[in-house]
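Hi F.,

I've been meaning to write this up properly since the lab meeting, where we talked about keeping a consistent format for the predictions we share between groups. The idea is simple: the sequence comes first, exactly as it goes in, then the structure tokens exactly as they come out, then a line or two of notes. No screenshots and no reformatting. I'm using this chain as the first example so we have something concrete to point to.
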Amino acid sequence: QVQLVESGGGLVQAGGSLRLSCAVSGLTFSNYDMGWYRQAPGKEREFVAAIRRSSGFTSYGDSVKGRFTISRDNAKNTVYLKMNSLKPEDTAIYYCRVMFNTYWGQGTQVTVSS
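Output, unedited:
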């Protein structure tokens, strides 16, 4: 079956950086657009970034533009989210997903302290 496993979350100070990874199995990874979402306590799930399957075209939510970078390695079936200049408001559970499908990872916690 399809599995998405996120890793790389943790506690970081404001201004710091983290890189999240999402390893995907059970489907032909290179055929799918991939994305990252996040959900903070008491808030709705929010779009963070997406990357097209072949062109590598990327898109970002307004709150992370210029600070976060999504990338993928089709040989490793992995999508990444590099997060720079982190702010306390970036604190959330971060989920990767197969775009336009119902496949989601279990999430990884990112906590940014002020």
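Notes:
The chain has no helices and ten strands.
Strands lie at 3-7, 10-13, 18-25, 34-39, 46-51, 58-60, 68-73, 78-83, 92-98, 108-113.

If this format works for you, I'll send the rest the same way.

G.
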